[in-house]
Amino acid sequence: MRRVCFVLRVRPDRLTEYRARHAAVWPDMLAALRAAGWHDYSLHLHTDGLLVGHFRTEDLAASLAAMERTEVNARWQAEMAPFFEGLDGRRPDEGFTVLEEIFDLDAQLDALDSTERASASTQELS
C-alpha cells in the first residue's frame, strides 16, 4: 500500500475555522474517503498555515478519481477552497503537492532483518 504525503497552505486568518471544520467532518465525506480507498488519513497543521496530510492507498490516481466522482467531495472542496492560499482556481484536492518519500523506517528495518536472516542462513550452511 502506498503512503502519500502532501502539503497545502491554509490562510493564517482562517486557521481557527479550518481546525473547527475538521473537528467534525461530514459523515458522508468520511464514508466517501473510505470507499475511495483512503486509509490512515491524517492532517497536521502548523501555526503558520502549513498543512501536511498523510494517507495510505493502493492506487493514488484511482482513489483521487473515485473521490472526483462523488457529489459530497464537490461540495466539500467548494467549501474548503477559500481556506487555502496558492490554489490558482484549482480545488484543494487538485492543488496539493505530493511529497516524495525518501525514508521509511519499517522498510529499512525489514531489509536489514532480511539481510541478517540471509547472512545467518549462509553461515549455518558453512
UniProtKB/TrEMBL annotation:
GO terms for biological process: rhamnose catabolic process. GO terms for molecular function: racemase and epimerase activity, acting on carbohydrates and derivatives. InterPro entries: Dimeric_a/b-barrel (IPR011008), Rham/fucose_mutarotase (IPR008000). It holds the Pfam family rhaM. This is L-rhamnose mutarotase.
